[in-house]
């Protein structure tokens, strides 16, 4: 296989890591909505925690994205 | 189709001669489009807050509500996470939040996003983590290292937990920098790629037009999403800065 082709395949494979972070962020929001619909009065107080959890889970997906970029451009 | 990475290229606006800094060697101090974007953001923020506080009224006008809203938003955040001691770090957190938000929004309205440069975001992250370490040592002295040994963990588990805590602490600035960088870069690339679809599908004539219309709708939707991301990433940076500062300020509760 040519090195150039392997580079693009590698970059594509690296972005598969984002599946995990997508599942994580989805789980966080589903958990928040389940809790919020059961006790709507407690929901606004948890907004910061919601965003924090989503950001922490998302960071791992971003790492995969950055690895993909490194494969292509570095 | 135009290269979607072209928008992130650094170009010199004002060429200045390189300066010899002792210990670093020759440093290029030319004003690039990245520095220009940051200067514009700084000037806009200063003008905005000057306008907000110029004629404060008891019943605030529209502009004053926005300014006070941003102020109260971060004040709430700092005090809800750190308690009364959050007030001491409020200026730093508000400055970071407003500056990152201004850079993100400037990237949405103009051609260049300074926060999509890893050099810029890494500087923010380095600033934050150096403050965390500095405050940690100033407040706790050598007890700062208790950060890596959480209370209530039995000693035999510490062998496992301490390296994990240590690595997670080292990864904090990395993830801070990469999250902002990756989000802004990814979002802007996606926007440009969809915009490219509109042109290249439209060039097919009658067959391509429905696809082009669909892609156009996509561009509009992604642009709206990017405005949300621009705010959210500035907020996330502020929240994480507060949480990391809280870890070292309230070390005994860790």
UniProtKB/TrEMBL annotation, chain A:
Transmembrane helix as UniProt keyword: yes
UniProt keyword Metal-binding, yes or no: no
High-level lineage: Bacteria, Pseudomonadati, Pseudomonadota, Alphaproteobacteria, Caulobacterales
Known function: F(1)F(0) ATP synthase produces ATP from ADP in the presence of a proton or sodium gradient. F-type ATPases consist of two structural domains, F(1) containing the extramembraneous catalytic core and F(0) containing the membrane proton channel, linked together by a central stalk and a peripheral stalk. During catalysis, ATP synthesis in the catalytic domain of F(1) is coupled via a rotary mechanism of the central stalk subunits to proton translocation.
InterPro entries: ATP_synth_csu_bac/chlpt (IPR005953), ATP_synth_F0_csu (IPR000454), ATP_synth_F0_csu_DDCD_BS (IPR020537), ATP_synth_F0_csu_sf (IPR038662), ATPase_proteolipid_c-like_dom (IPR002379), F/V-ATP_Csub_sf (IPR035921)
Record keywords, A-Z: ATP synthesis, Cell membrane, CF(0), Hydrogen ion transport, Ion transport, Lipid-binding, Membrane, Transmembrane, Transmembrane helix, Transport
Bilayer disposition of the protein: Multi-pass membrane protein
Transmembrane segments: 12-30, 50-73
Name of the protein: ATP synthase subunit c
Main location: membrane
A Pfam family that the UniProt record links to this protein: ATP-synt_C
HAMAP family: ATP_synth_c_bact
UniProt-annotated site: Reversibly protonated during proton transport, residues: 58
Family from the record: Belongs to the ATPase C chain family.
V-ATPase proteolipid subunit C-like domain mapped to chain residues: 9-70
Compartments where located: Cell membrane; Membrane
